[in-house]
Amino acid sequence: MNGASDSTPRFNPKGIPAAPKDPLYSLVSAYEADESDQKVDLGVGAYRDENAQPWILPVVRKATEIINQDTKQNHEYIPIAGLPEFNSAAQSLILGVDSIAIKEKRVCSFQTISGTGAVHLGALLMAKFTPRPSPFVFISSPSWPIHDQVFDTVGLPVRHYPYFRKDTKTFDFDGMMDVLKSAPKGSIIVLHACAHNPTGVDPTDDEWKEIAKVMQANELFPFFDCAYQGFATGYLSQDSFAVRYFVQQGFQVAIAQSFAKNLGLYGQRVGAFHFVAGPGADAQSITDNIASQLSILQRSEISSPPIFGAKIASIVLNDPQLFSEWEKDLLTMSGRIKKMRKCLKEELDRLHTPGTWDHIVNQIGMFSFTGLTPSQVLELREKWHVYMAETGRISVAGLNDRNVAYFARAVDDVVRRVL
Ligand SMILES: Cc1ncc(COP(=O)(O)O)c(C=O)c1O
């Protein structure tokens, strides 16, 4: 071929600007480099035990032993959609064992690279199969920052709905409802199934019902992100109330599910994407067609998902004895987080720290949106060696009996001195 003219589209590496660093990963590096023995890590969204150490769930240890003792284990590829016994158990976990949608075979499930991979696979499906101009994807403000990034990366236009009232530090139900009422029909609404990241505030069951009513009336598409099932209340079925309610109401639903937090399998990258078709004569064929398209997307991106973490999850989810041990592990984690919320609030009350701190105990899940300003967060880091997100979010799991009083003193100091 002749040389391309100047107007020929081409990949131009020289024109690519540097992208900003991921703020949370930068925070981890800064924490690791800090040599103070008083340093406190409240940035990373991962559970820590009372010694500030990662916790391998006892049930995960048992499942790993079972795998290691099985002489028939190998490292063969697994199917494109992932381990079938993992997918079916993950489905039942989120939708409920007697879900009508499962009985009617209108659910398809794909094992993914944890929750992020599940959000991405769903986003990719929607980006490929929606007409241009694409529908808007509405994401809560604030949200897990990667939501914007994932939908933006696949070319879907992102909009936001209000979620958090700064004055009361509570859920902004009216603000969210106003946007849902005026969103264009067909918009995709990303909903945190429970333990909203970063605010720690969830709609009540009644509020979820109102949200569903408006979404149904306005023909909006729910895309649930469920990264913390079992972490909010400590109970798996209560934490999936919203998802199950929407399915019962006959919605078609997309669900991204992560086992990073509730099984402590962070780096193993275990998750699932589920698509639930609405009830109707064509539900099964819609589900089958979507599954066939997901196969192509999955095959082009990762070929087939990794085996080890999914086997661990599958063993725990499918064995009644191990499952009930897991439920206890979940209560251990959520219980310790609740205890730390209470201790922090008590310490702040004891110090008469200016402001109200009820939200620390009223918020739920792994995070608390403290209301601390970016300057206070910076001062906490520079003077007190406390590392937390610039938004004022703390991972409550990073607190323990040894550092909670220290953290409260640090907060008290910066709140009094820094705006
Ligand atoms: C709301 C939300 N969604 C998804 C994820 C995905 O996590 P992972 O990819 O580790 O499962 C997270 C993790 O922090 C999250 O907070």
Automatic annotation (TrEMBL):
Q: Give me the segments passing through the membrane.
A: none
InterPro entries (alphabetical): Aminotransferase_I/II_large, Asp_trans, NHTrfase_class1_PyrdxlP-BS, PyrdxlP-dep_Trfase, PyrdxlP-dep_Trfase_major, PyrdxlP-dep_Trfase_small
Q: Which UniProt keywords apply?
A: Aminotransferase, Pyridoxal phosphate, Transferase
Q: What does it catalyze?
A: L-aspartate + 2-oxoglutarate = oxaloacetate + L-glutamate
Establish whether keyword Transferase is in the entry. yes
Q: Which cofactor does it need?
A: pyridoxal 5'-phosphate
Q: Name one GO cellular component term.
A: cytosol
- Polar residues: which segments have biased composition? 1-10
Write out the ranges of the annotated region (Disordered): 1-21
Domain Aminotransferase class I/classII large: residue ranges: 38-410
Q: An example of a Gene Ontology BP annotation on this entry?
A: aspartate biosynthetic process
Tell me yes or no: is Nucleotide-binding among this UniProt entry's keywords. Answer: no
Q: What's the top EC group for this one?
A: transferase
Q: Which domain of life is it from?
A: Eukaryota
The GO terms describing molecular function are: L-aspartate:2-oxoglutarate aminotransferase activity; pyridoxal phosphate binding
The record ties this protein, via SUPFAM superfamilies, to:
PLP-dependent transferases (SSF53383)
Q: Could you say which EC number(s) this protein's record lists? A: 2.6.1.1
NCBIfam families cross-referenced by the UniProt entry: PRK09257.1 (NF006719)
Q: What quaternary arrangement does the UniProt entry report?
A: Homodimer.
Q: Which PANTHER family match?
A: ASPARTATE AMINOTRANSFERASE, GLUTAMATE OXALOACETATE TRANSAMINASE 1, ISOFORM B
Recite the other comments: In eukaryotes there are cytoplasmic, mitochondrial and chloroplastic isozymes.
Give the family per the record.
Answer: Belongs to the class-I pyridoxal-phosphate-dependent aminotransferase family.
Q: Under what name is this protein listed? A: Aspartate aminotransferase
Q: Output the lineage of the source organism.
A: Eukaryota, Fungi, Dikarya, Ascomycota, Pezizomycotina
